[in-house]
Amino acid sequence: MHTIKHLTSVELKLITREPFTLLFVFVFPIVVLLVLSGVFGTEATEEWQGTTPANYYAASYIGTVIAALALISVPSHLAAYRERGILRRLTASSVSAQAVLLSQLIVGFLLALGGSLALILAATLIYDVEMPVSIGGMILSFTVGALSFVTLGLLLGSVVPTARSAQAIGLGLFFPMWMLSGTGPPPDVMSDTMRSISDVLPMTRLVSALQAPWFGDGVTITELVILVGILIIAGAAAVYRLRAADQ
User: Fold this and answer.
1) Most buried in the list 80, 99, 105, 171, measured by CB within 10 Å?
2) Which region, left, alpha or beta, applies to residue 85 given φ > 0 means left and ψ of -120 to 50 means alpha?
3) Which residues of the chain fall below pLDDT 50?
4) Element (H, E) at 96
């Protein structure tokens, strides 16, 4: 437990010194939220699930914070450790792969939480957005979604050989999902082809899981089950990959 606590403290200090991480977690979602809310106005319509664009995007852009962190920052951070031989030195000093991954999972969750709170604060101060109808459901959906996506990022970082390639792949995965998962144009204005693609994207499940309790539609069990499945499979695969790399 002491090892996990120490690793988490060190990892938190290191990753918060990366400008790219701070940009995508704390700046990018807020800026795009403000731009889109300004473009689409402040009137509540059915296209926005009966609410205002600002309120719609405040809920969905929590998913953007999580996905940006998990797909762009987390993989490159872990891949850099592997590339520089830091992970090998840690395991040589009796630090297990599980401990390294768990510490990075905790750090990723804390950053996602911080970025999401900053987003909600900005949206509340500027647009006076409504708070979630179901606080408990929102906490559950956020926790499951953040842990599953950060774990997915750790899997990517455990497979890709360099930090640069991890960052490139992460950006390539993030932006198409960002455009098609309900964080770009709302699903009601997408074409049938776009909606078909959107339905199979994991970020769509994340956004749906976050929006449901925010708008008072309860907890979406299907989305949570899928996200838990991602968490278990990606976590097991990441541990296996790091163990195999050390042998």
Assistant:
1) 105
2) left
3) none
4) none
